[in-house]
């Protein structure tokens, strides 16, 4: 009976930890969606709400970390249970970083509200945010259902965010070259786009953790990276 009680208590602790991960995932998804919407609609109140909600993410990560340490110390889990506990720690850290990047987007949006819109950049950012938001949603679903196929699909979608980021990077550089008055807004938009690109990377990291959690081994396929912004050059003398 004592052993049954220990197993039941351990399962309850795991369930509690998994539920906290689910809450962090839902909050990260909503933070990103609201941050992007604040930018597109130029909504100061919505941006401020995203910034305020980041504190809850930090609290959840701390609670998960404490739970993980306690489970490792008291239960000494093995095999799948050990991977579940370790994965929770890693995934919580990734979600906390996603929350930070969403908060940064909201902060930049407040600054951008003081400038004129630049071209079609807001729509591209909205597309990037939509894909990244879907990645967060799907990877948390994959985690909760131990769905390795869905996790790998999330990993593959990161290249879509990368490609949009590279295209927007080129576009914003062109706007700055054409009119120096665009430099301030474009600089902040570049940071916004990079934040969303990084969110995609963190969602991909979670997908890889889910793959390892389920399979007990890393995904052997090379991770596709399509972000070419670091090597992009726009020739200022090219008038064609």
3D architecture notes:
By secondary structure, the chain is mostly helical. The chain has a single domain, classed as Phosphate transport system protein phou homolog 2, domain 2 (Methane Monooxygenase Hydroxylase, Chain G, domain 1). The protein is 81% helix and 0% strand. It has six helices and no strands. α1 packs parallel to α3, α2 packs antiparallel against α3 and α3 runs antiparallel to α6. It is elongated, with a radius of gyration of 20 Å. The mean pLDDT is 90.
Low-confidence stretches: none
| CATH topology (fold) name | Methane Monooxygenase Hydroxylase, Chain G, domain 1
CATH superfamily: Phosphate transport system protein phou homolog 2, domain 2
The CATH architecture is Up-down Bundle
Main sheet record: none
Judged by helices, strands and strand pairing, the structural class is mainly alpha
| Overall body shape | elongated
Strand content: under 5%
- The N- and C-terminal alpha carbons lie at a distance of 80 Å
- Oligomerization: single chain
Domain module count: 1
How much helix is in the residues? over 70%
Characteristics of this structure?
single chain, Methane Monooxygenase Hydroxylase, Chain G, domain 1, 6 helices, 81% helix, 240 residues, mainly alpha
Topology:
Blueprint: H1 2-41, H2 44-74, H3 79-112, H4 121-145, H5 148-178, H6 183-215
Helix pairs in contact: 1-2, 1-3, 1-4, 2-3, 3-6, 4-5, 4-6, 5-6
